[in-house]
Amino acid sequence: MEPVMHRVRQRVFHRLHRALILPKRNHSGCAEKADVPPSTHSRRIKPTLLVSRLYQPSNLRDVGQDSRLPGEMTCKSQRLMQQAGLIHPSNPGCYYYLPATVRSMEKLVRVIDQEMHGIGGQKLDMPSLCSADLWKTSERWDLMGKELFRLKDRHGADYCLGPTHEEAVTTLVAHQATLSYKQLPLLLYQITRKFRDEPKPKFGLLRGREFYMKDMYSFDVSEEAAYETYESVCRAYTRLFARLGLRCVQVQADTGNIGGKLSHEFQLPADIGEDRLLVCGNCSFSANVETLTSDRTDCPQCKTGTLVESKGIEVGHTFYLGKKYSHIFNATFSNAQNKQSIAEMGCFGLGVTRILAAAIEVMSTEEGIRWPGLIAPYQVCVLPPKKGSKVDEAAVLAEELVHTLGETLPGLRGEVVLDDRTQMTVGKRLKDASRLGYPYVIVVGQGALEETPRFEVICQQKGETMFLSKDGLLDLLGRVETV
Ligand SMILES: [Zn+2]
């Protein structure tokens, strides 16, 4: 025990030393990286992410079932997200996305970007304020009815807040006089806020009036090429959901007011889903109930399977548009014979905020959020012992562990938080950690003080608890995929 105590004392000294160089505040109140003073320490120590400093408004913590606004229904993901300080309602169908949600959203956007770039997508950003002229040209100004948020500028000109951008992107492409068949397929996409005046916004981020969507538009030389593009986007969607660990079904769908000939929805089966699906128990066939004419129970594809009804949350939608918009806006390209030809189009949506909420809806327990690991706001939470407890001295080891993880495992840089609220019991902090759903929670207690230090690791997604040496821990966390 003697050498251990010596080590602990040394660490206490280091901690005191570190206390002097904790993050400084600059004038705007933001934490700055601490400068290491020119002393015996050559190692640059990064500021630690402290739970006590994270903005997750705790007054929302015990709102329970009464977190709903008047006239607004609630569901598991909405309740858990509000309780954990991830979102806060502002006005019907609109939410503050609090910092942890923004971190998760940014990760989700990176995964989507990777998949879209993988099929040749190029990201752009189009105005949210859309001129009514474009929408009148496509006749959707009237067709969209009350769903469209409309407004007038100071000159009396009509505008809408874009719920989708077929008109805008097609006009953009039409303006390029020199588009060649060699540049096709052209896949343009954006991830932006969209607006839809929902009659009954509900279920938190699942059906809001302001939300993030990824919308991609494709331009091809022929119908055949457009179908190939369509298939490649569908495969990218399937890969995306697989990477997130979400079970998603691709179902035949109605083309709705977007128009076109072929359409699929990507649905996450869930009890609170608003779409009714029929899924074949025998083959891959599945369809939205709306698209099937009779109350059929036999599968049209394999003829032998029985269709079973399930509810789903729509998280993606693909449309083959043909020449519908390219014809109206004259989006042409010069073909191999150097003649102008009208482009074949497709459009492909993903509800970004909806994927986040739907994932929480289907993965979480009633008490705590469970994230797709890849997009959890933080991967690891380290819990030091309660202040004044008999293993108090392990607190130094917890702090040291946070630094070691950040330095040894580059993928976990900025992903490890220290729950420094040591006035609270470990049990109480564990409960909070379970509510927030960090994929890995490490309890630094008695075991860490032993000759061969051991750490208690709770893998929240699997509900498993393990006791690991430092090496074992580094090995486990070194395999965590981050984005
Ligand atoms: Zn079948």
Folded structure, characterized:
By secondary structure, the protein is α+β, with helices and mostly antiparallel strands. It folds into 2 domains: 2-56 and 372-478, 3-Layer(aba) Sandwich (Rossmann fold); 72-363, Bira Bifunctional Protein, Domain 2 (BirA Bifunctional Protein, domain 2, 2-Layer Sandwich). 29% of the residues lie in helices and 26% in strands. It is built from 12 helices and 24 strands. The chain has helices at 2-19, 76-83, 99-118, 132-137, 140-143, 166-174, 223-243, 324-329, 352-363, 394-408, 426-436, 470-478; strands at residues 24-25, 31-32, 49-50, 87-91, 94-97, 121-123, 129-131, 149-152, 158-161, 186-195, 210-220, 249-252, 262-269, 275-280, 286-288, 307-322, 332-334, 340-342, 344-351, 380-383, 416-418, 440-443, 454-459, 464-469. The strands form 6 sheets. Strands 6, 10, 11, 12, 13, 14, 15, 16 and 19 form a 9-stranded mixed β-sheet that branches. A 6-stranded mixed β-sheet has the order 3-21-20-22-23-24, with helices on both faces. It has a 3-stranded antiparallel β-sheet with strand order 7-9-8. Helix 1 packs across helix 10 and helix 3 (99-118) crosses helix 7 (223-243). The longest helix has 21 residues, at 223-243. It is elongated. It starts with a helix and ends in a 5-residue tail after the last helix. Bound molecules: zinc ion (ZN). Zinc ion (ZN) is lined by residues 280, 282-283, 285, 299, 301-302, 305. Residues 280, 282-283, 285, 299, 301-302, 305 line the site of zinc ion. Pfam families: HGTP_anticodon, tRNA-synt_2b. It comes from Amphiprion ocellaris (Clown anemonefish).
